[in-house]
Specification:
6 helices; Rossmann fold; alpha/beta; 155 residues
């Protein structure tokens, strides 16, 4: 295995044009920011009366759901799952809570699941850095917009 790439800062930068190393170093800051945003969220009381919680997202946007489900497994009184696909599983309905997570707000699979959730689920929390296209920004806004979580920070 050639380890020469890690022998100098210049080689690391050349091998890491997207600055993944910098993003990894920022992870504690990102986690603190996510915790602050989550603690500040004001959810209506009805959002606590659900039979299941599903996070919809892809890639890194779904990992937060996996982490939350693992961390809260002993505390949650209802099942929590992560859905990484188009549409929604059949069990999701009026007594569900759906958290739609998309960094860009433009992820095709998440938007598909989100549109399906808007038809079947009264409790949706959209979480996005901010949709970049005006047509998708309008779709991302829901009747639960007062519960939206938007992060303007990195990550």
């Amino acid at each position: 295995m050639d380890t020469s790439v890690i022998e100098s800062v210049e080689r690391i930068r050349a091998a890491d044009p997207e600055d993944m190393l910098g993003r990894i170093k920022e992870l504690p800051k990102q986690i603190r920011h996510a915790w602050e945003v989550t603690r500040a969220a004001q959810l209506p009381p009805a959002y606590g009366d659900v039979r299941n919680i599903t996070v919809i997202g892809m890639g890194g946007s779904a990992i937060g759901g996996d982490l939350a489900a693992a961390l809260l497994a002993d505390e949650l009184k209802v099942p929590m799952s992560v859905h990484r696909d188009y549409g929604l599983p059949a069990f999701i309905g009026r007594d569900s809570l759906v958290i739609a997570s998309s960094y860009s707000g433009n992820t095709e699979e998440t938007l598909s699941a989100f549109e399906e959730a808007r038809k079947r689920v009264p409790r949706i929390i959209p979480s996005s850095r901010s949709p970049t296209r005006p047509d998708r920004a309008r779709r991302w806004a829901t009747r639960s917009a007062s519960c939206s979580v938007h992060s303007r920070g990195s990550g």
